[in-house]
Amino acid sequence: MSLILKARALGKKYRRRWALSNCTLDVPAGRVVGLVGPNGAGKSTLLNLASGMLTPTSGDIEVCGGRPAGGTAQLAKVGFVAQDTPTYAGLTIGEHLRLGDRLNPGWDAALAERRIRRLGLDPRQRAGRLSGGQRAQLALTLGIAKRPELLILDEPVAALDPLARREFMRDLTDAVAEHGLSVVLSSHLVSDLERVCDHLIVLVDSRVQAAGDVDALLATHHRFTGTRRDPAGLPADHHVVSVHHSGRDTTLLVRADAPVDDPAWTVSRPDLEDVVLAYLGRPATDGHSPRSALEALR
Question: What are the boundaries of the signal sequence (predicted)?
Fold first, then answer.
């Protein structure tokens, strides 16, 4: 399996606080990877390490077969759109495209101009007069026209209205299909990730809690419902992710290759949001399982 990103015991510390700790990941190439977690979980830190904007405090990271920002050739392999979809307010759209041409050796001018025309944007218009959705589309155009192997998007739709967000995600999906990009996309909105992503990483308390293909994650997570009881009685290969007691009932989110055949439990299939929320509500070192969620999914 070809990897677009590989991290081993990766960590980043700011003074006394670890923003990312002991992060070990294998991200396959050719995927649209969703990165999800609460505020302060380390998502932006991981993406900034992958883009070369930050350097690790501990561990190692390899992106597109090399060290992030390790020279001109390596920089050309990665496109990065930051959370505020940065553009230069005083420059026109056309000037942004010409700047991209001068700064990027693999720049695809025809692609950039074609996207701007399709979006109905006037190359003479200054970026400072664009709507939030238009600025996001301009930033995405700059990232795609660079022709990177990996496109990193840090919360690119956070400030957009639902319609602009959907249009952005649709354009991203089209670009992936047309140009064969690998993408890592962070978002708080699981519905957006579910629409476009085929691989998922869940970060909580600066640690990876789950990682894998979406289909595999959904196939190996099960919702157990029954009369109130201690989940410790489940088989050893059933790893309890979350427990919820309500009156006389107990609901569990369980990770297992196949659910136990026990008539005392009603077993159903959770959706992706159920799985994500279960991990987000679970402390990184809660002791539910002798193995980490990431280790068990490998």
Answer: none
Q: Give per-residue pLDDT as tens, 5-29.
A: 999 999 999 998 999 999 999 999 9
Statement to judge: residues 156 and 49 lie in one domain: yes
CATH of the domain at 73: 3.40.50.300
Residues of the chain scoring pLDDT < 70: 283-298
The answer on 138 and 180 residing in a single domain is: yes
**How many independent structural domains does the chain possess?**
2
Q: What is the pTM of this model?
A: 0.87
Q: Are residues 190 and 141 in the same domain?
A: yes
CA dihedral 133, 135, 139, 144 (to 10 degrees): 50
Predicted local confidence at residue 283, as pLDDT: 60
Sheet holding 150-154, edge to edge: 78-81, 150-154, 182-186, 32-36, 199-204, 207-213
